[in-house]
Amino acid sequence: MKRIFKFILIFLLILFFNSFIFERYYVRFPIYEIESTKIPKSFDGYKIAVVSDLHYGFLNPEVWIRNVIGSTNEQNPDLIVGLGDYVKNRNFDEELISVWKLLPLLKGNDTEVFVNGNHDHWANHTLSLRLLEESKKSLRNRTLEIKRGKEKMIIGGLGDFWEDHIPIDHIFQHTDPKHFRIAIAHNPESADTSHKESIDLFITGHTHGGQVRIPFLQLSPILPVQNKNYDLGIQHSIFNEMVFISAGIGWSILPLRFNCPSEVPILILRHKENR
User: How far apart are CA 99 and CA 105, in angstroms?
Assistant: First the structure.
């Protein structure tokens, strides 16, 4: 009986260390390859770092955020996209102001672009939008051309699905569908909103991958979205458009992760030949 109790105690200690410390604070940089015939040859190998759900605040202090930013820069990405939920708590102007002093430390070879998430709006809707625009890196409600010689791709930013919805067609209507078009959004369910303009890749976060995933089945019992296909990694929208969902960095409700470590995914674009 004593041996069984000892075994259970050791197991619980290991589980606590893994879920409350290791998987939360040891950030991974998993690589995903995105293939498309619309990706120009000059963009083959293009690296996009996805920074989502930092949730700066309680248990995610400045020193740790700085470490995540430094480690992200070390990946040498061409483009860094910030997908929102930069803060954790509601109605904390100080946290919004503090985190926006840190976000400019992110450095991509080409540029860095940002949109907001629901927690940013909950903290202070007006202030979060002002800080986003003052950063000069806002992609909300606009598009950006990224060029390699004569070739280019288009990236546009959506508002938050819950708090700041902006129609996709409004953002992309003046861009050419012949080009590879990327939409960045906090919530993957933005991809399921009605639109006529085709999007080749949505880059999103919000779900935290569920935070707790059942081993072997790779399922999460709790996801803050109606479309339960939107948990983690490469999925497809109801319009059969590619949607990438990052598990992100922070936490919601409980400060733990199990079988779902914190991550800053690196998307590598690959030109696919027509056959």
Answer: 10
3-state secondary structure (DSSP) of residue 272? coil
Is the CA virtual torsion 160, 161, 162, 167 positive or negative? positive
- Residue 75 pLDDT: 98
3-class SS shares of the chain: helix, strand, coil, % to 5: 30, 25, 45
CA distance 54 to 88: 8
Distances (CA, A) of 245 to 9, 145, 222: 35, 23, 15
Least confident among 15-19, 40-44, 137-141: 15-19
Sheet with strand 79-82: strands edge to edge: 31-36, 266-271, 47-51, 79-82, 111-114
Split at pLDDT 50, 70, 90, the class of 34 is very high
Cα–Cα distance, 72 to 246 (Å, whole number): 14
Task: Summarize the confidence of residues 220-239 as an average pLDDT.
Answer: 95
CB atoms inside a 10 Å sphere around CB 5: 9
| Environment class of 4 (CB within 10 Å of its CB; exposed 0-12, middle 13-18, buried 19+) | exposed
